[in-house]
Design goal:
By secondary structure, this protein is α+β, with helices and mostly antiparallel strands. The protein folds into three domains: about 160 residues, no CATH class; about 140 residues, no CATH class; about 200 residues, no CATH class. The protein is built from 21 helices and seven strands. Strands 1-3-4-2 form a four-stranded antiparallel β-sheet, sandwiched between helices. Strand 5 and strand 6 form a beta hairpin. Helix 16 runs antiparallel to helix 19 and helix 18 runs antiparallel to helix 19. The protein is globular and about 80 Å long. The termini are far apart.
Length: about 550
C-alpha cells in the first residue's frame, strides 16, 4: 500500500503528476487530508493510515490486501471539480461494498487521490485513483468476488447519475481490449538488451548505469503499441483470406511469427493461435493471443467466415504446422482474382445503398460491416504507410464497433465480399503509377461506408461509438482524403464503363452482380424500417477532402 501511495502522490514516471491531493476517503482519512497537498511527509502518513488495519489485525488476504482502480472521464466531459469527484468516489465505494453498508459492517480504509490529467505529458483525461485496504477495521475481509463486473456496473450507473458520456457497453455488449503502457516499454527493453549484448558480447546489461540503460531503451521505443501493430497485421491477413489455410499463408507476408495452440493431447486440432513481432536482435518475443488483440480476431470467430470441410481443416493444420516450424507453405497459394477499380468501387457503392434497409438495432450485422471495413483499411495502411499512420488509426477506431462480447450469429456476406475485393485490389495496385487515384476512388466509397456506421451508432444512441467514429471521419479520414488527388470527370466515366463492361461479360452462374447483396434481406436481418425511421442519405464529402 505504501508503494502505491508513494507513486500516486509522487512526481510520476515522467514528472507528469501535478497538484497531488486527496479528494475523498474514509472518514478519518478525508478529515485528516482535506485540502492538503501531499508532500513526502504527508504521503508517508497517508500510507501508514491506509495500512494500519491490516497491520493491527495481522490478517493475510490471498492475492494481496491492496485494491486499486482508476476512474477516468472521457475528453468530452472535460475536467470536474474536487466536489464532484468527491461525490463520485463515495458513490463508487458504496456500490463496490467497501463502506460500512449502512452500519452493518466495519468500513474499509480507502483514499481517492487526484494528480492531474493522464498521459505521458499530462494532457490526457481527468481521472482519480482509488486505493482500498481490503482488511476492514474489525479484521474481516472485504468481498471482491467479480469485482471487475461490479466496478463496470457501478461506472455505468455513475455515468447516468452525473450526466457523463455513457460508454454503454452494458447495453451494446461490446468493448475493445485494453492495453498497458508497460507493454511498449517491455518490448523496447528486450530489444535494447539484446542489441547491447549483441554489440558487446563481453559486457553485461545489468552492469550498465541506470541512465545509460534508459538511454538505450529510449532508442528502441516505437511510436505505437505492440498489440495495435499486431492487430493491424492480423486483420490484414484475415480480410484477404477465404479459408483458414489462406489466412495462415497471409500471416507469413505480414512478417510475424505464429504459435498455434492445439487441443489437449492432439496435434491435428488447432483451437487458437498467438502472434509476435519478429525479433530484431535475437530477443525473446512477446506473444499475444488472437483474442487478446481483439475479440473479432479470435480463431473461432474468424472461422465463422470460412468454409468448413474435412479437406479445409486438414490443409489448415498443415499450414499452421509448417509456419510454426519455419518450413515453406504446405499448399500452393491460390489467391482470389483482383477486380478492376471500377467494379470494386461500384460494388461498395451498391453496398452503401443497401445498408439503408438494414435495421439499426441489428447490432451483429452492423458489427460485421464495421469489421470488414476495418479490415480493408488495415490492408490499405499496411500497403501505403511505412509506420502506422492515420489510416491505421482509422482502422483501429472503426474496429471498436466490431468488438461484441458474444460470438455473432449473423453477418453481411456482401460486406465481406466487397471489402475483400477492395483489400486485394489496393494491396496489388496502390503502389503503381495510378495508385493515388485508386486510393481516391476507394476513399470516396469508404467515406460513405464509415458515415453509415456512424449514423447507425447515433440512431441507436451509442454515444461513445458514435463519437469515436465521427472523430475518425473528421480527423484521420479527412487528413487522408486531403492528401489524395481529386477524381477528374473522365476518370469517373472510365470507372463506370469498367463496371458496366464487367457486369455485361460476367456469367450469371459464376458471379451474378444482381445477387451480390442477396443475403441482406428481411428474412435474414429482420423487416425493413419504415421510411420515417430510416437514416438520411449521407452527404457527399466536399472536393476539399477528396470528394
Amino acid at each position: 500500500m505504501r508503494g502505491l501511495v508513494a507513486y500516486l502522490a509522487g512526481p510520476g514516471r515522467r514528472n507528469e503528476h501535478r497538484n497531488q491531493h486527496v479528494v475523498a476517503g474514509s472518514e478519518d482519512i478525508e478529515f485528516r487530508f482535506d485540502d492538503i497537498d501531499l508532500d513526502r511527509a504527508q504521503t508517508r502518513l497517508l500510507g501508514r493510515m491506509l495500512e494500519c488495519d491490516r497491520r493491527n489485525s495481522d490478517v493475510v488476504v490471498t492475492g494481496g490486501h491492496v485494491w486499486h482502480c482508476s476512474l477516468s472521464l472521457s475528453k468530452v466531459d472535460g475536467v470536474l471539480g474536487d466536489d464532484q469527484w468527491r461525490r463520485i468516489a463515495h458513490r463508487f465505494v458504496k456500490q463496490m461494498g467497501f463502506d460500512d453498508a449502512g452500519g452493518t459492517k466495519a468500513p474499509c480504509q480507502w483514499a481517492a487521490i487526484r494528480h492531474g490529467l493522464s498521459g505521458e505529458t499530462g494532457e490526457g483525461n481527468d481521472h482519480i485513483h482509488i486505493a482500498v485496504n481490503l482488511v476492514r477495521s474489525d479484521g474481516t475481509k472485504a468481498w471482491v468476488y467479480r469485482d471487475y463486473v461490479r466496478a463496470q456496473n457501478a461506472c455505468r450507473s455513475l455515468e447516468r447519475e452525473f450526466g457523463l458520456e455513457q460508454v454503454g457497453c452494458d447495453r451494446t455488449r461490446a468493448a475493445t481490449r485494453g492495453w498497458k503502457p508497460g507493454e511498449r516499454e517491455a518490448e523496447a527493453r528486450r530489444r535494447a538488451k539484446a542489441r547491447f549484448e549483441q554489440d558487446n558480447p563481453n559486457a553485461r546489461w545489468s552492469a550498465l548505469p541506470v541512465e545509460e540503460r534508459k538511454r538505450l531503451l529510449s532508442q528502441q521505443l516505437d511510436g505505437s503499441q505492440p498489440r495495435h501493430r499486431l492487430a493491424l497485421k492480423v486483420r490484414t491477413a484475415a480480410i484477404q483470406a477465404n479459408s483458414e489455410a489462406q489466412f495462415v499463408r497471409n500471416l507469413r507476408r505480414q512478417h510475424v511469427i505464429v504459435r498455434p495452440r492445439y487441443a489437449h493431447g492432439r496435434t491435428d486440432v488447432v483451437t487458437g493461435y498467438s502472434v509476435a513481432e519478429r525479433p530484431r536482435y535475437g530477443e525473446s518475443p512477446i506473444w499475444y493471443g488472437g483474442g487478446s488483440l481483439a475479440r473479432d480476431l479470435a480463431l473461432p470467430r474468424l472461422r465463422q467466415y470460412w468454409v468448413d470441410s474435412p479437406r479445409a481443416a486438414r490443409e489448415a493444420v498443415e499450414e499452421w504446422r509448417a509456419f510454426s516450424r519455419g518450413r515453406a507453405a504446405a499448399h500452393p497459394n491460390a489467391t482470389r482474382a483482383t477486380l478492376t477499380p471500377g467494379v470494386v468501387s461500384e460494388r461498395i457503392a451498391e453496398l452503401n445503398r443497401r445498408l439503408h434497409s438494414l435495421p439499426v438495432d441489428n447490432r451483429e450485422a452492423w458489427a460485421s460491416v464495421a469489421r470488414e471495413a476495418s479490415g480493408m483499411m488495415s490492408a490499405w495502411s499496411r500497403t501505403v504507410e511505412s509506420v502506422p499512420g492515420p489510416i491505421a488509426k482509422a482502422a483501429r477506431d472503426l474496429s471498436r464497433s466490431a468488438q461484441t462480447y458474444d460470438r455473432p450469429r449473423q453477418y453481411v456476406p456482401a460486406a465481406r465480399s466487397c471489402m475483400m475485393d477492395a483489400a486485394l485490389l489496393i494491396t496489388a495496385a496502390a503502389c503503381d503509377d495510378d495508385g493515388h487515384m485508386l486510393q481516391a476512388v476507394l476513399m470516396r466509397q469508404m467515406w460513405k461506408t464509415v458515415f453509415e456506421v456512424r449514423r447507425t451508432m447515433q440512431a441507436r444512441d451509442d454515444a461513445y461509438l458514435a463519437r469515436i467514429t465521427r472523430e475518425c471521419q473528421e480527423r484521420e479520414l479527412t487528413a487522408v482524403a486531403k492528401s489524395l488527388p481529386e477524381i477528374p470527370e473522365q476518370v469517373d466515366r472510365a470507372l463506370r464503363r469498367q463496371a458496366m463492361q464487367t457486369q455485361a461479360v460476367e456469367q450469371p452462374a459464376a458471379r451474378p452482380q444482381a445477387n451480390v447483396f442477396a443475403d441482406i434481406k428481411p428474412e435474414r436481418f429482420g423487416t425493413p424500417q419504415p421510411a420515417t425511421a430510416r437514416r438520411q442519405q449521407p452527404p457527399m464529402p466536399d472536393r476539399s477532402v477528396g470528394r
